[in-house]
């Protein structure tokens, strides 16, 4: 009996050693794939590629960005959700993936609450309300007065139905009781071009693609949808200062993997992501183009996702935005 107990004890010890080695082995001699649900060259791709360089150094393994654009991020999100939960396939999930799509689609190929491991935040892009330079209103009070005296006539562009720019517009309409005419485009680039040309009169824009236009005087910003003024636009009031209290809106991105990833792997990725986000050169580069680093623990990011789901699902349902 003693011999059997001894052999069993040896087995347990060896099993424990093997488990410890398996935990410390990550990442083994294998590249980590970072799935980006957009085409190369956009803000999401820029964030991922810059952070992939820093994380490669922290992990000691190559982090390879793979673009899987299409279907309002659903293609990329589904690939992440259906991957093995071993930490070697992770990726970007944004406000559309996690907060908007569940309310806008009757059926999705992923469950935004159950199919992902939340690793941490990446960055958020403040939204601002911009108008064509010749628009008659010079501030928010005049803007709302003009819109209310011309119901359904003031046009407001967006990068497409269900985009962050569109849902921000719907939240603004609901909070202010204003009747703006939504004009959806296929992407922010053509919408911005028409805003600068005066084909549409106003638009919620995120800063990375529009900052140079704003600083060049091609667009005029009435207010920023952030709690405090932005350092890169110090003379522009917040929505609260401009007379629309409690209005905040960002386009944001987070880092996720498939559900049921080992806790040790999630924590390792979060730690190395935080180290990459803390690099002074990277932070300066992001902040210069209007990206705010969004450092969060896995729990903080999960809580943030759930709060955003609650806010925007109510806005989307009230606005009756349905994409399928």
CATH class bucket of the largest domain: Alpha Beta
pLDDT < 50 runs, ≥5 residues = 1-23
- The total number of structural domains is 2
Oligomer: single chain
How would the global form be characterised? globular
Distance between the termini: 66 Å
Could you say what the CATH architecture of the largest domain is? 3-Layer(aba) Sandwich
**Overall pLDDT metric:** 92
Reported for the largest beta sheet, the result is: 10 strands, mixed
State which percent range the strand residues make up: 15-25%
- Number of helices in the DSSP assignment: 12
User: Any idea of the CATH topology of the largest domain?
Assistant: D-Maltodextrin-Binding Protein, domain 2
> Radius of gyration, rounded?
23 Å
Order of helices and strands: HEHEHEHEHEHEHEHEHEHHEH
What's the β-strand tally? 10
Tell me roughly what share of residues is in helical segments. Answer: 40-55%
The CATH superfamily of the largest domain is identified as Bordetella uptake gene, domain 1
- Helix/strand/pairing category: alpha/beta
